[in-house]
Amino acid sequence: MIVFNKNTFRKSLIKWYLEEKRNLPWRETSDPYKIWVSEIMLQQTRVDTVIPYYNRFIKVFPTMNDLATADEEKLLKQWEGLGYYSRVRNLQAGVREVVENYNSIVPKTRNEILSLKGIGPYTAGAILSIAYGKPEHAVDGNVMRVLSRVLLIKEDIALPKTKKIFEQAVSEIIDPQDPSSFNQGLMELGAVICTPTSPKCLLCPVRDNCSAFYAGEENRLPVKTKNKKTKALIYDVYVTQNDKKQILMEKRAESGLLANMYQFPMIEHVDKNIDSFSLLQDRYGINFSKEIELGTFKHVFSHLTWEMKCFAGHAEEISMYENCKWLTIEEIKEVPMPVPMLKIWQAYIERGK
Question: In CATH, which of 3.40.910.10, 1.10.340.30, 3.90.650.10, 3.90.1150.10 is domain 6-215?
């Protein structure tokens, strides 16, 4: 068993990070607002996916005031495709609090920043350390994976209480002189070297301080229990076009999954003896003539899965179902749609070419 030396660990980690860090747009600023945006986007989303979204978002909302005053459809449109839309709603709510209560200056203490909507311990620590150079812990999945191996921590990281162990560990070993590089170094190490499977131990800058490497347990850590299986919902989805070349779109409810996003008419399979086609006619007040099958699509959310069989055809309106609109192709480009609907729309457009 090796003896962990926090001084050599700090130096090795920071040296490696400063030399090898990826060139990412949010690393080119110390603006706490922009760092805040990047950290919210990076939650449960790959870095490569986030980069173009971040650049567009900052271009459209360059200041907190721009974001605070934005209307929701414009906001959701900029987030379209990133998923987990409550993130951006909470981000806007938190930014509004800063604009109204802190004179547009992101607070510099953990207690104050944690009071903001949508900010948890990790995001608070990331903003405080990266933007303000404060030695505050920022523990996410990457950090827990790295430190479970380095410090041979065998508690189950799927349990919320375990995070406290890692937060305490970071607080004890963080570099007080350069907490920004230290925290980002841990995150970077977990992203590119100390990966979930097949960690690149021979390339690791802190290998000499890694207990799991010397114990031969790097592939058995971290300990993480598996999540429960997701629930599957089965839908028929209809892309309906009228004589004016308009498409019927429905705006989802103001709360719940994908709140206020736009979708094509969807009929859930709850009883195999009931024809979804008949339900479509009755619920949406249209006479629909099925013309083509667009195929089947599957979309996995964190807690459930949508399995969708999709059709396209012509419709004549009888009576308008609430929250529905007939939109032109140009108008559809302006409304926010969730990823599963974007996939169906793309298939529809390509089928018509």
Answer: 1.10.340.30
In this prediction, residue 353 carries a pLDDT of: 47
In the chain, which residues fall in CATH 3.90.79.10? 231-352
Residue 327's pLDDT is 93
pLDDT tens digits, 285-300? 888 887 889 999 999 8
Q: Which of 12, 16, 5 is nearest to 192 (CA)?
A: 16
Q: Is 216 left (phi over 0), alpha (psi -120 to 50) or beta?
A: left
Residue 333: other Cβ atoms inside 10 A: 11
Which one from 19, 20, 28, 39 is the annotated catalytic residue?
39
Between CA 261 and CA 25 the distance in angstroms is 28
Query: Contact, 249 vs 266, CB < 8 A?
Result: no
Q: What phi and psi, each to the nearest 5 degrees, are found at residue 270?
A: -110, -20
The whole-number average pLDDT for the span 173-193 is: 96
Long-range contact list for 101-109, CB < 8 A, 24+ apart? 104/63, 104/64, 104/65, 106/32, 106/33, 106/36, 106/131, 108/132, 108/134
In the chain, CATH 1.10.340.30 covers 6-215
CATH number of the domain located at residue range(s) 231-352 in this protein? 3.90.79.10
Q: How far is CA 125 from CA 42, 184, 281, in A?
A: 15, 11, 52
Q: What is the pLDDT of residue 280?
A: 86
Confidence (pTM): 0.86
Instruction: Assess whether 39 carries a catalytic annotation.
Output: yes
